[in-house]
Amino acid sequence: MDLYVYYRVRDEDAGQLLPRVRVMQAQLAAAHGVAPQLKRRPESTGGMQTWMEVYPATLPDFTDALAHAADASNLGPLVAGPRHTEVFMDISSCA
C-alpha cells in the first residue's frame, strides 16, 4: 500500500519545516526500508504552500510509525492545519 500525506505550510515556515521533514524521512527510510518522496505544488496561494509526502510500498503497520515520527519531529507547529493521510493500493491487490 502507498501512503500520501498532504498538508499546508505557510511560506514563512517552509524553510524551517524542510529539514525536519527530510530528517524524519531519512530515519523512516533507514528503519522501515521505504523510499520516501517529498513534493509541493508549484504555486503558493495566499501565502500557503501545499506539500505532499509519498511513501510507496509500505507495510500496514507503517501508518502508525509515520504518525509517531511526525510527532517526534515536531512538525505540528510549522504545519498549517491537519496532515491528511490517504492510502492507495495497487488494483491487482484489490481483486
Commentary on this structure:
Pfam families: DUF4936. This protein is an alpha+beta fold and 95 residues long. It has a single domain, classed as Alpha-Beta Plaits, CATH 3.30.70. The protein is built from three helices and four strands, in the order βαββαβα. It has helices spanning 14-32, 62-72, 91-94; strands at 2-10, 37-40, 48-55, 80-88. Strands 2-3-1-4 form a four-stranded antiparallel β-sheet, covered by helices on one side. A hairpin with a 7-residue loop joins strand 2 and strand 3 (48-55). It is globular, with a radius of gyration of 14 Å. The two termini are 14 Å apart. The mean pLDDT is 95.
Largest sheet: 4 strands, antiparallel
For the secondary structure, the number of strands is 4
CATH architecture: 2-Layer Sandwich
- When the domains are counted, the total is 1
Q: Considering DSSP H and I runs of 4 or more, what fraction of the residues is helical?
A: 25-40%
**Taking Cα atoms only, what radius of gyration do you get, to the nearest Å?**
14 Å
Low-confidence stretches are none
Placed side by side, the strands forming the largest sheet appear as 2-3-1-4
| Arithmetic mean pLDDT | 95
Give the helix/strand class: alpha+beta
| CATH topology heading | Alpha-Beta Plaits
Described by the principal axes of the CA atoms, the overall outline is globular
Q: Please tally the helical runs, counting DSSP H or I stretches of 4 or more residues.
A: 3
- Span from first to last CA? 14 Å
Relative strand content: 25-35%
Given this structure, which CATH class is correct? Alpha Beta
Protein name: DUF4936 family protein
InterPro entries: DUF4936
Pfam family, one: DUF4936
Organism: Pseudoduganella lutea
